[in-house]
Design a protein that fits this description.
heterodimer, A: alpha+beta, five-stranded mixed sheet, B: five-stranded antiparallel sheet
Chain lengths: ~220, ~525
Amino acid sequence: MRMVDIYIMGKRYKVPANLTIMKAMEYAGYKLIRGVGCRAGFCGACATVYRTKDDYRLKIGLACQTVIEPGMYIAQIPFFPVKRADYRLDELEPTFETLVKLYPELLRCLGCGVCTKSCPQDLDVKDFMADAMKGDIAAVARKSFDCIMCGLCAARCPAEEPQYRIAILCQRLYAKYLAPKSKHLEERIKEILEGKFDADMKRMKSLSVEELRRMYAEREIEE
Amino acid sequence: MSYTPEMRESIKKVEATRPARLGKPFPRMAPEEKQELLERFHPDYRPEGFREIRVGPNKGEKAMKELVDILEGRSHLTSDMLDLDRIDYDTDVLIIGGGGAGASAALLARENGAKVILVTKLRFGDANTMMAQGGIQAADKPNDSPIIHYLDVMGGGGFANDPDLVEALVMDAPLVIQWLESLGVMFDKEPDGTMFTIHGGGTSRKRMHSAGDYTGASIMRALRDEVLSYPEDITIMEFAPAIELLMDEKGQVAGAVLENLETGEHLVVRAKCTIIATGDTGRLHYQGFATTNHYGATGDGLVLAYRVGAKLIHQDTYQFHPTGAAYPEQIVGQLVTAKVRGLGAQVVNADGEQFVYHLETRDAEAAAIIRECTERGKGVETPSGMRGVWLDSPMIDIIHGPGTIEGRLPAMVRQFKRFGIDITVDPILVYPTAHYQNGGIAIEPDGSVKGVPNLYAAGAVTGGVHGRNRLMGNSLLEITVFGRRAGRAAALRAKEVRLGKLTLAHVDDWHRQLEEAGIGTNIVSPILLPDYTRKVR
């Protein structure tokens, strides 16, 4: 096993060369409480800032998805105190005014693009922030959909924007107010509430396992 | 981290057989064939993986060794360690667990007039819900019905399911889809609003709803943001897991003792009703399997409920997801969503041959892959000595048109791209991975725990609804359906509850039972977090 040196919060450790940052920290002896979550790139708990040897630039990544490099300096930022505006979705309207009222700092965006550079999901954060400033909620919802709310954009933003909070607000506004409604869903709910399936359900529940087994084996399968 | 030359050779064979395989799926298994396959290759049937439970409500029954170890563990507490007259928090409903079930329960408990405290071991929303990629089932299309959904669930579960729970699951499903949408979940739709739905393993209708391949994440983000809208009614406490349930002198559950994970401080929460929504057990690494599960999936709620007399059902069956990543090493065990197969990708061996229908139920699909990699020796070996078979993802773009994989599976594309693999061009190496606790705490359709007053449970910690095998897309459904039901029932029940003096006598009694059974364990449970220090896992 090839071993390399890395620096966790400035301290040197020798670890196997092919590990992710998270597994390297565990190998070094950390029992993680903060800065660890799904371990699969979905939850955003393990946002990490690092620097590689001989490079002045600070880089970002998810600890569970980034492989270590020799001489890497690692610091985790598992908590960042970003404000969430006080709102209830059912009292809102899907408009530009809503966004600005809840997050007036939206208009302070400098368009510098640090957020886009900071995103471990490779989202164009600056681009959807521009959409937000135009009040195009559908565009923000679509472009920000893969956001895992790790907070790295907000942590590095010189205008102190809560980009991921604006993103989730737009996603929710879009789904509730702007997405086309499903007629078949409304129809089915009406049927259920009217009791259309009650008698058949009662009959199904009374069947023996043998009868169910036969029905299951003979059931028609949609192509 | 791209594929090795040896693996490249095998991929050439996969590419060579691909044109002939298109539109020609492998035949489905007959029921007898499936049963024989399961008995020979599924981990549920390996006797050496199991042992008998020696104490408690399921005494004399079997479960996988790793689960029995924590069920038979000692408590973190003894009754003389805490002054229970000093109550730190008092509430109507205490919810233990901050995933989809806990969040759904919090919203419905509040809606029904309760003050709620939701406690969670890590951050609110750090849960398996967040990781569920594939979808959520609901029979809302004209060619489908809750009755057909019912039959699929029962058949998938080996007809061992609790019919009342299945009825609740399938009848609530369309309502839950609408509820989630009203809370801000972005379901995939056609321009006219028709839901985009596909098959999952074991479905007879296309009823799998999705939000890209971040379905669970979209649900969890919306639920979490909604819960955060009511700070006056719902208090969130993070990094504060429950380590024991409290009882009162009348024998009712009456809250829990929490541990502040960072300071070690113990906190007493008195609650009129308590809901357990702690999720799964994949991090116990049954039989040495890797897992798709969240870091916190250590079965805490099973242990807590078991000690106050809750009976477990189907605790002897665990779901192994057929397609966990087998390469690259850094992401071994992580989920490759079933949606990849739902969109038409076949499973083939090292020689590019099909050996199983790509949409069998998960238990059969997993067993077939294990057979291919063991007895038949047709697996592909990785540099770390692991074996796997190919999931032929490039087929998806050939079937549905270029760009489908990027459009429908962006999380998967991104996950592999990070390690130098392009799944739109090359297949994915997969092997079964520990995924879902089929069984768990036995509940009624309203979420109340059978035989334990004032205790409720919802989500993966419960058993019965899926029988002995859960279908894809029924766990996101389960957490919302039963989270909501438990939240509502607990809030209504809380209005009538009169609690007596708090006690931890049941913990002392538990330790006595362990001693009488001759169990000299040094395991203290719930274990709260797995220990990976100084290990490579």
